[in-house]
Design brief:
Blueprint lengths: L1 E4 L2 E11 L2 E9 L8 H15 L4 E7 L3 H9 L3 E10 L4 E9 L1 H4 L1
Amino acid sequence: MAAERAGKLVGFFAMWFTADEAELGDLVVHPVYRREGIGGKLLAFALQEARRRAAKAVFLEVRESNHAAKALYEAAGFSVLAIRKGYYSMPNEDAIVMRLELVEEAR
């Protein structure tokens, strides 16, 4: 899914599905268009698609230093599941693994 403004790509997400789980691999918004709610709309659409496909949980990894993304995910109900030490390179950084359970929301 992509977000456009005046015919320009300004954001997108990539998600894949396995059995009854989804993984949000990327959620990106161009720096010029951040803080305009685009990331939140993309995330909401991703979660809607996960529910449509009957996923029971959504997982993601986020850089430890990406405070804005972590806040977005926490506001959507994601919680920290684990830390992956040295997961990212350039620069070397830990990943925060987050999970959102969708089962309760479906009831």
